[in-house]
């Protein structure tokens, strides 16, 4: 049975590309979560006034990849020590956050933060936020890396290093490495 992980780690184009390469991941949807405006648009979220984070909702098969493994990949492929930013993307919409769907996911999120802190010299600022209404992003944001993203200079600068880290640090979990 499919389970879901909802994660915010900066630009959703960049996090989506990483998780689409993970064995056991069945779907990745870009969207918005954690804000106060119903049905926000990309433009509204980018303005930083809605309270939403750009996030991904990862559908996964727990028999193939665990929630804990997904969290470890999440922490290894973005900088969880940057408050309200990832690289050049600045604002609360780019915060590092985990939105657990269950008490067990919340416990595992706390454990993952503790594990990740061992690898980062600066304090991790990733928040654990209550599950909230999920709003899928507009269609042109879905599967962005496979299409427009490979012609976008920003994506070309940011995504390949994230994929390299995944494929090096989590080789057994990468579709590209095990193919």
Automatic annotation (TrEMBL):
Keyword field contains Cytoplasm = no
The UniProt record lists the Peptide methionine sulphoxide reductase MsrA domain at 5-155
**EC number(s)?**
1.8.4.11
What's the short name of a Pfam family annotated to this entry? PMSR
| Entry annotation: catalytic residues | 11
Q: What is catalysed by this protein? A: [thioredoxin]-disulfide + L-methionine + H2O = L-methionine (S)-S-oxide + [thioredoxin]-dithiol; L-methionyl-[protein] + [thioredoxin]-disulfide + H2O = L-methionyl-(S)-S-oxide-[protein] + [thioredoxin]-dithiol
Which keywords annotate this record? Oxidoreductase
Q: Which GO terms describe its molecular function?
A: L-methionine:thioredoxin-disulfide S-oxidoreductase activity; peptide-methionine (S)-S-oxide reductase activity
Homology family? Belongs to the MsrA Met sulfoxide reductase family.
UniProt cross-references to PANTHER family, sorted A to Z? PEPTIDE METHIONINE SULFOXIDE REDUCTASE, PEPTIDE METHIONINE SULFOXIDE REDUCTASE MSRA 2
Give a short account of what the protein does: Has an important function as a repair enzyme for proteins that have been inactivated by oxidation. Catalyzes the reversible oxidation-reduction of methionine sulfoxide in proteins to methionine.
The protein depicted here goes by the name Peptide methionine sulfoxide reductase MsrA
């Amino acid at each position: 049975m499919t389970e879901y992980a909802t994660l915010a780690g900066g630009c959703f184009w960049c996090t989506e590309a990483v998780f689409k390469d993970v064995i056991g991941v069945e779907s990745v949807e870009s969207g918005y979560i954690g804000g106060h405006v119903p049905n926000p648009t990309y433009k509204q979220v980018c303005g930083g006034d809605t309270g939403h984070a750009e996030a991904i909702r990862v559908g996964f098969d727990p028999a193939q990849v665990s929630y804990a493994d997904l969290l470890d990949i999440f922490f290894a492929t973005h900088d969880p020590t940057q408050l309200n930013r990832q690289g050049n993307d600045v604002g609360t919409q780019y915060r590092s956050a985990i939105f657990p769907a269950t008490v067990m996911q919340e416990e595992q999120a706390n454990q993952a933060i503790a594990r990740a802190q061992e690898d980062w010299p600066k304090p991790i600022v990733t928040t654990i936020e209550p599950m909230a209404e999920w709003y899928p992003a507009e269609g042109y944001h879905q599967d962005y890396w496979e299409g427009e993203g490979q012609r976008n200079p920003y994506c070309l600068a940011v995504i390949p290093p994230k994929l390299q880290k995944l494929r090096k640090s989590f080789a057994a979990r990468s579709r590209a490495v095990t193919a």
